[in-house]
Specification:
By secondary structure, this protein is α/β, with parallel strands linked by helices. The protein has helices spanning about 30-35, 50-60, 80-95, 110-120, 135-140, 180-195, 200-205, 215-235, 250-260, 265-285, 290-300, 315-325, 350-360; strands at about 5-10, 15-20, 40-45, 65-75, 100-105, 130, 145-150, 155-160, 165-170, 335-340, 340-345.
Length: about 375
């Protein structure tokens, strides 16, 4: 499929709320798009992508945009905490950030969640731009305006919907991303192909691209996966309907991440095997063709992702599953698949099947 344009919009009644642009390989097209819109910008970036931040700030300076601050942060999941926000807000005050200043965040999903939440809450919300630099952030985390920090009690429990004015996706930013960083984003690619079917699914069936190269196939996969997220978000901005399909593979993945201690399993590893788990349930509940799971298992293996679960005790798993943010009053709901492109929400998956699937996918 040709993704027709380099520009997509998250919109309400045809009014664009958030623009998603694809660009690269240089950064001038980003700054020529945002430069004329902003008077003053406060930049925060992941130190791993300092070279990008330096180029972007220089181009913005050339455009006559006032640079209020340029702050590199050491990024890891533990920064997504309330107590790390306060010094950031103080720095913003000290640098003279006001309601009409923009925040520009360059980094992966951790930085876009954290800085995006700062943009959502500082002075009750300022405009912001996300420049995602990991595969996960380019195809998922930076798109759709969900921003959050963690609590000790769980991930992403404090947050907001605060759409960035622009998400600028430059696949060339991934040139420096270690292979593990690529793997973390693959769960979302597989999930998107499964729930949307169509060209992304067909292209992966025809052959999966090897990790680590920003080649034409990857640029197309990134653009197509990002477009799937934009389309789903557009159908359901406030997450009351179709957006739940993006949770495919995530019910078990979240439980796995939590039960093994965050960091043991990367998100991509957890969503990969969580997708296999959901496919197994789909075979039993919706009659899904089992060759789909065999194929996805092959891809995960080829990409170096695990395809079996560690031993999970059902009695310990059940309360964790039920704590999932997506568990509704009516109890657990699973996103399952009838066929690629045809996801369904299923509420009444029997306990014995949930247990049977754990056994079927566990290491023997
Ligand atoms: N808001 C949402 O809708 C949403 C959706 C999915 C995930 N998330 C969040 O995203 C976060 C995970 O994001 P992530 O996987 O991007 O992690 P991350 O931001 O921690 O990035 C992973 C690692 O890559 C480094 N890095 C980033 N860009 C790089 C580059 N171009 N070259 C070299 N190194 C680079 C980072 O410093 C970090 O060490 C989680 O906190 C998750 O909750 C949010
Ligand atoms: Zn995910």
């Amino acid at each position: 499929m040709e993704v027709q344009s380099d520009r997509l919009n998250i919109e309400r009644r045809q009014e664009s709320l958030s623009e998603v642009r694809f660009g690269g390989p240089n950064w001038q097209d980003l700054t020529s798009v945002i430069g004329p819109r902003m008077k003053a910008v406060w930049m925060v970036y992941d130190r791993q992508v300092e070279a990008i931040a330096t180029q972007v700030s220089a181009h913005l300076g050339d455009q006559g945009v006032r640079l209020l601050g340029l702050h590199g942060l050491e990024v890891d999941e533990s920064m997504k905490r309330m107590d790390r926000l306060e010094p950031l807000y103080s720095q913003m005050i000290a640098d003279g950030v006001t309601r009409d200043s923009w925040l520009l965040a360059i980094g992966g999903g951790v930085l876009s969640d954290f800085a995006g939440y700062a943009a959502a809450s500082f002075l009750r919300g300022i405009d912001w731009v996300a420049v995602p630099t990991t595969l996960l952030a380019q195809v998922d985390a930076a798109i759709g305006g969900k921003v959050a920090v963690n609590l000790r009690e769980g991930k992403n429990l404090i947050g907001a919907f605060h759409l960035p004015q622009l998400v600028y996706i430059n696949p060339w930013a991934l040139q420096t991303l270690p292979i593990e960083g690529w793997r973390t984003g693959l769960g979302e690619v597989v999930k998107s192909a499964l729930i949307e079917g169509g060209p992304l699914w067909q292209s992966l069936v025809a052959g999966i691209p090897p990790l680590g190269q920003v080649d034409e196939h990857w640029r197309w996969v990134i653009k197509t996966t990002a477009k799937i997220k934009v389309d789903v978000v557009n159908r359901d901005l406030e997450e009351t309907g179709d957006r739940i399909f993006l949770n495919f593979g995530h019910t078990l993945a979240h439980a796995l991440e939590q039960m093994t201690g965050y960091g043991q399993w990367s998100h991509g590893q957890a969503v990969g095997v969580g997708s296999l788990y959901a496919l197994y349930l789909s075979e039993k509940q919706l009659g899904l063709d089992p060759t789909i799971r065999a194929l996805v298992t092959e891809w995960l293996k080829a990409w170096g992702l695990p395809t079996v679960l560690p031993h999970l005790d059902y009695a310990a798993l059940e309360p964790v599953l039920l704590r999932d943010k997506k568990a509704r009053v009516s109890g657990l709901c699973w996103v399952l698949l009838q066929s690629p492109g045809n996801p369904k929400v299923v509420r009444d998956v029997p306990k014995n099947l949930i247990e049977e699937a754990l056994g079927a996918l566990s290491e023997s």
